[in-house]
Amino acid sequence: xxxxxxxxxxxTRAFIERTSSYYPPDTIDYTIAEQREIYDRMCREFFAxxxxxxxxxxxxxxxxxxxxxIRIYRSASQATATVLYCHGGGFILGGLDSHxxxxxxxxxxxxxxVVSVDYRLAPEHLHPAAFDDAMNAFEWTAASYAQPVLLCxxxxxxxxxxxxxxxxxxxxxxxxxxxxxxPGLGGDHSRGSYxxxxxxxxxxxxxxxxxKHIRTGGVDQTGDIxxxxxxxxxxxxxxxxxxxxxxxxxxxxxGEAYRDRIVAAGGRATxxxxxxxxxxxxxxxxxxxxxxxxxxxxxEAVSALGKxxxxx
Length: 312
Hints:
Blueprint: H1 4-7, H2 10-22, H3 32-46, E1 55-62, E2 67-74, E3 82-86, H4 100-110, E4 113-117, H5 129-144, E5 149-154, H6 156-167, E6 177-181, H7 193-196, H8 205-216, E7 241-248, H9 252-264, E8 269-278, H10 289-306
Parallel strand pairs: 3-4, 3-5, 5-6, 6-7, 7-8
Antiparallel strand pairs: 1-2, 2-4
């Protein structure tokens, strides 16, 4: 058994308790509508506002299946890169508001414009709907901006970013880099963090199975690289990649495995595991020292990759 009393410090435990007061661990046993209401309320409780000088415009882009809502963040700085951000939420939760302040802070601290995409959610829209929307959002962003486009996303959003990176390798305009924050990439559930942290606070392997079942409608899609990027047989020519994971998270091993595959294929990738942190710690970036330091590393990674720099 993993001793979280040793791994997790008092600040992080307080964050977990605060989160649980809004979003109880048994929330996955509620209806999807109830889960969304609980999640949205929790996100509002953690909302940290916008940095000074950051503004946002909510609009939509045309997709083959539907219009895709997006929110564009701008600061007073002259943007030299654009970040396409895909939010987390297990493919069933979240939207433009759930990660509103995170995107605003990325914009304010990097000076880049940030485009947040409100992809379709399951179970109303099964895979590959979310992936299709992320792809369409990337293609729109790449066509609309002269500057390079960087991918960034957390959890489910990290999965979508990686899938887009794999799918766009042959495109004339590809992502200049990707920053994946505690992403789920389809790793081996029988080893590593999936076993060591199967009952971690904030996210368990039971949760992961639930989200996968909802996203796929219960259909086995093993080998689909748009669903599980780690299932790809080819990791060459992917953009420079920074993976940032939480130690106390069943998904942590996915970061290590993805890093190893890219490096073995001759690419640039680095994996940073944040000691003592848990899944969803982006919401703790103003209250937990470890999360604050990690968010600074995320900002630095986004800033460097947007400039075409590799500092690892």
